[in-house]
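Q: Start with the shorter request: fold the first protein.
A: Done. Sequence, then structure:
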Amino acid sequence: MLRTLLVAVTALALVVAATPAAARPPGTGSGRDCTGGRHWDAVQARCVCRSGSVWNEARQQCMRPAPAPPACTGGRVWNAAAGRCICPPDRRYWDGKSGRCTSTPIPPQQIPPGGRRQPQPPR
C-alpha cells in the first residue's frame, strides 16, 4: 500500500511539474511560480505575501495596507488631502467652545489690548 501511495504521489508531482506554468492558476505549483514579492508557503501549498502585506490583484504585487485614518471628533470627518479632520460641508464651521461642527458661523470674540474684557457700563 505504501508503494502504491508513493507511486501515486510521484505521478501527481510529475503531472504538476509537466503542466506549463501558464496553464496553472497563479500562485500554485511551486515556489518558482511566485511573483510580485510572494513566497512559497509549503503548508498552504500556495504563494503568499509576507506577514503584514496583502496581495493587490490590480497591481499584481504584495503591498502594505494603508494605515487606518485617525478617529475624528465633534462631527468632523477625515480629509486625506488635507491630512487632518475637517467639518463636513453641511456643518462647515468649528465651534471650539462646544467642540463640535456647526452650520452657523461662530462670531469672533473681541478681546481688547491687554487681554482682558472690560466691564460693560449699565444701559
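Q: Next, the second protein, separately.
A: Sequence, then structure:
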Amino acid sequence: MEQIRKLECVAEYDLPVPEASQPLCFRIEVYSKGDASRRDQGSYSARVFRYDLFRIKPTFPLSQGSKAQEAADHEILVVEPAFELTEINAPDPDMALQNVITKIIEQFNVA
C-alpha cells in the first residue's frame, strides 16, 4: 500500500496561454512537504490542471410554443497527465512556479 503524504498548498496560479490555437488555461498548484524545515531546503511539488470548457444544451422535447432553453457554459479542472505530481527543487514557491512554466512551454511548444 502506498504511503500517505501530507502536502500543504502554498500557492495557486492561473496561467492562460493566449498563443494556443484554442482557448487554453492551466491552474498550477505548488505544494510544500508540510513542515517548515523542508520548506527551507527548497523541496516543493507541483500539480498542473487544465481548464476544460464545455457547453450543455438541453435536448429534451419542448411543448408547442415554448422557448428553447439557453445553452449553459461550464468549466472543470482536469489533472494534466503530462505532469502528474512533479517534484521540484526551488528556493521558494515563485521559483517552483517558473520551473513548472518552463516545463509547460517545453511540453506544449508555446512561448
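Q: Describe the second briefly.
A: The longest strand covers residues 43-56. The chain is about 20% helix and 40% strand.
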